[in-house]
Amino acid sequence: MIQPGEMAPDFALPDQDKNVHKLSDYRGKPVVLLFYPLDFSPVCSNEMACFRDALSVFNDLDAQVFGISVDSVWAHKAFAAQQGIEFPLLADFHPKGDVCKKYGVYLEDKGICDRVVVVIDPEGRVSEVIHVGIPNVPDVEQVAEAVKKAAAATA
Fold this sequence. Notes:
By secondary structure, the protein is α/β, with parallel strands linked by helices. Helices cover 31% and strands 23% of the residues. It has 5 helices and 9 strands. Strand 4 (64-69), helix 3 and strand 5 (89-91) form a beta-alpha-beta unit. The longest helix has 14 residues, at 140-153. The radius of gyration is 14 Å and the shape is globular. 39% of the residues are buried.
């Protein structure tokens, strides 16, 4: 698994609207990567609802939030519509799990990524890695504090 202090591997992935997001395009602001197993599963639905409801907190911190899973663009589109998610859900679909593997969060035996939050500072370095585990929902306040710390470290 990727560690704090390492440069975050760059990637370019499509979101639910087929817009391609390149991580390096977000330099200058904190980035939150929410790696999660699958759209529509109960815990993932709860996790995305928590971040949907707290999105203004991350907007106020000038942070970009991304959800990332191995689901397709089409699954993300339906999931975002059902859940009212307004932040990008990135499809690490083909090659399957390529970005998840770069971050060390792909579970080869299950064919999905683990539930891990990676906070990246404005310079593109990993500031914090929060391994939540598949059955758990991340603590939004803990993630917001990690974003504040990441922003302050480069200010």
